[in-house]
Amino acid sequence: MNFLQILSNTAAQILAPATLGYVLAAIGLSVHFGFAGLLNMGVAGFMAIGAYGFAISILTFGLAWPVAALIGLIAAVVFALVMGIPTLRLRGDYLAIVTIAAAEVLRLLFLTSAFRNQTGSADGLSGFQAGFRASNPLPPGRWGFGPWTYQSDQWWVIIVGVIAIAIVVTLVWLLMRSPWGRVIRGIREDEDAVRSLGKNVFAFKMQALIVGGVIIAAGGIVTAMGTNVNPNVYVTSQTFYVWTALLLGGAATIFGPVLGAVLFWVVRAFLSNLLPALVNIGWLPFLTTEQSQMLVFVLVGAALMLLVIFRPQGILGSKKELTFVR
């Protein structure tokens, strides 16, 4: 077992497009759940909307990649409105039911062969990154240092992703320090009290749902810039992964989702490399290589349960931020 190679492969995932996409998705979910108290269980749906909106705009309509990214974000706004209008006046658990169902409906729509020419059906979409890569200002080649050695196109995705994260973190920080953010926090704690002050609680909830949904969709777009789009990626387990990352870092914090997503993806990558290696050297004789990959999901689920039980506020969170869940 080459333990140094395992560590190198794990470290390389810190700047992977999937990790950056999860960071953005966790920040968006933090706006929903951590700050506004909205139970969004359809994170995968928002990520799929962003990714497919980006890819379809380029392949079907021939739009430039910045315009395609904007359309993916606008599609997330529409998706949030469709879900929020009938549910945000009701109890929070209705939103959870609607979002998880809507995400699955979206996945099946992208999977159906009726729209194969637009969505690619089960094969997904590929070849839409050509315009994005053509705009790469970096010199061609493979460069970097240690495990962070990537092709020029990969560095371009990383740069765009890091810039997007920096912009989103700054935006969320400014929003939560503003009067709007204080109203959102108040709604999370006691929406009846906020309503008694003359605030339109429904409107503020809708705004929070849209803002968080757009950020999550941006995560889907960044991920799509580095890989193909496939409906089998946007499943319910992806939503639970983002929730795990959020709870790990701290739901009602600014930098908690960033830390949580990076730690989650690094640990998952470490286990995905370590467990098959342990099987190959005979340290886990009761498992096959394929079964060891399934064990990763078991460990992630167990970690999520332990987080909720023993550290629900996350690494950077505080217990006072969780009074609204009681």
Automatic annotation (TrEMBL):
It comes from the Bacteria. It is found in: Cell membrane. It is a multi-pass membrane protein. One of its GO terms (molecular function) is branched-chain amino acid transmembrane transporter activity. InterPro entries: ABC_transp_permease, LivM-like. Keywords: Cell membrane, Membrane, Transmembrane, Transmembrane helix. GO terms for cellular component: plasma membrane. This is Branched-chain amino acid ABC transporter permease. It comes from Microbacterium oleivorans. The lineage of its organism: Bacteria, Bacillati, Actinomycetota, Actinomycetes, Micrococcales.
